């Protein structure tokens, strides 16, 4: 057999089996994170050079089984079947042997080359479980290697054995697999024979025995594939399979797949009996004691709330410092370029469009890094599962899984990482539903808008009004959840069969890798979209460059300059400084008036005036309309746009408040606008995240349409209802 | 007797896992099969879901899901 230089090795194993740790130890920072084709399941792979080979290590999604119920399981199974890696390493959690072996028996049935890594045997030993590796290896008919993933022990041996096994042309033993009871074996043989006749070895992409077992288990994926291949004998084949299933069902008084699952566990029980000795000595289970406190009837929730509070404090309070540093850096760059480059359209494009746009995203990086770091701690310690355990009852009321809570909560910070965080949900429907209701959680970028509007019109009650807005978001997300669950995303929510893994001390390396993977994704994808979006917004508000102005601003400026140069000549030396200042002030005033008129006459202003009739019934004038439109790029922009349109300096929020109070805005229309900002289409980056994480343009468009319709409707009710009730 | 009838710190043996489709299969695949001993570790603060110890590991189930599992006393 010729030596193959490139070997593909797939890592399989249960969630929490230490698979990711082993993968990180093998590949280090040389890993590539992407998605499996067509689905939003994360795919990680890394290439290393070892023993004169190039080893491509692929981390399969962590699964408990290979029954194609979840996307993860389908992805893992398809990879082994279709891509046919040179070797599969199945990581078995020694402290959780029986359940880990269930996946092992299924991988054995696939008939691929497989090596077992018995991980965390030290933990098992501490719990009084002794595993006879030689015996286990003999019983499984395949080599078993000891590893301790978090101490990086046994990894070298594992790789060495892996390469050795992948290169050898030993036949995988046919024995030592699950033997089912006699009646089932007879049915398996019958179906096998039929497959041989109707499809034949050359055309069948899988092994006969495995295919027969899957057909008897009524595996939809295999069934459809075989039905396609069988051609004319299709009817006959499927009928025979159904006959065999019916026959077994009568014999066992249960579905064949249930009986077979039972029997696999029976096989495992026999294996465990021979290879494992358990001492009965009682030991202190630290993890269990921790859990008794953290999920305690009385203090469980307060502790949970504290953790969440601490996470937000860290994210937003600690994030302020690096944020300020980045802002400073961006403004330095901007100022630097401002002084170097000559006045031109390109300069305006670069400074106001590109740098301002990208700068507005990059400042969120510290927040996102800290937030993801905290989430990684929750996940790696095992607390995330407990959070879901605590919250499930409440979330179940909306028709969601306990795990949906975390993304929704993160939505108060920033919707983009929140939507990415919905990846932890296994069921696709749950994921989509969570993604669709998360934008109603009022993100931190909307807060400045509320502060300005509520501060201008509600005085002392501003705090209560803003709280009310947040509350309204929560209520509407619950209502939306219930509505969608009973209509387009119909169906029971995913079962809550969830492992509560033992608490573990997280490894810094793994936390950092987790954090960076997600943040990198955020930066890469979002900066592209944000960049494009800001360029569009900038272009619309910058062009046409020189519209027909109602007044001749250039002439006005010249007049002022002429006036002051006359007065400066006449004035005493000590008065000159005051005059110069006065001149600058008057020039700025004229320039601001020009900018306001420019904003009104730019394409953006024209669009604003065009759409104004749509906003009129909800009490928002053309200026508000423009501000809302620009808010699509990023919500913070709403305030700065209003600043430009009401001709005040962006930074001076007091001035904007005064200007707003003097305009024809009323408390009621301000409230209506706040409601609209809360509910309407999320920012560009969020919309892009929705598109990415749902994997469909359809859901993205649905979200855009739904949120905007709801926003208009609710604002309409607030505004018109308020007017009817006699509020101005 | 159903699994959901058990109180905290009670033990039982699985007789039959009822229900249908994916949920039933999932419960079985997680090792809650006929003849398995289960121990009710605790209920969540809001009484739902519940936490069990099965085959040496901890798993949580909703009460309505546990109601599909028939159990018997173990001596």
Keywords summarizing the entry:
heterodimer, A: alpha/beta, Rossmann fold, Helix Hairpins, two-stranded antiparallel sheet, 32 helices, B: 75 residues, alpha+beta, SH3 type barrels, five-stranded antiparallel β-sheet, 2 helices, globular
Summarize the structure.
The complex is a heterodimer of chains A (728) and B (75). Chain A is α/β, with parallel strands linked by helices and 728 residues long. Chain A has 32 helices and 10 strands.
Q: What's the overall average pLDDT of chain B, rounded?
A: 91
- Taken as a percent bin, the fraction of beta residues of chain B is 35-45%
Overall geometric form of chain A: elongated
**For the record, what CATH class of chain B applies?**
Mainly Beta
**What is the fold-level CATH name, i.e. the topology of chain B?**
SH3 type barrels
List segments of chain B where confidence is low: pLDDT < 50 over at least 5 consecutive residues.
none
Class computed from helices, strands and strand pairing of chain A: alpha/beta
Tell how many strands the DSSP assignment of chain A holds: 10
What CATH architecture label of chain B applies?
Roll
Distance between the termini of chain A: 87 Å
Shape of chain B: globular
> How do the helices and strands follow one another from N- to C-terminus of chain B?
EHEEEHE
* Largest interface, chains and sizes: A-B, 42 and 32 residues
For the record, give the distance between the C-alpha atoms at the N and C termini of chain B, rounded to a whole number.
15 Å
- By DSSP (H or I, 4+ residues per run), the number of helices of chain B equals 2
- What summary fits the major beta sheet of chain B? 5 strands, antiparallel
Approximately how much helix is present in the residues of chain A?
Answer: 55-70%
Structural class of chain B: alpha+beta
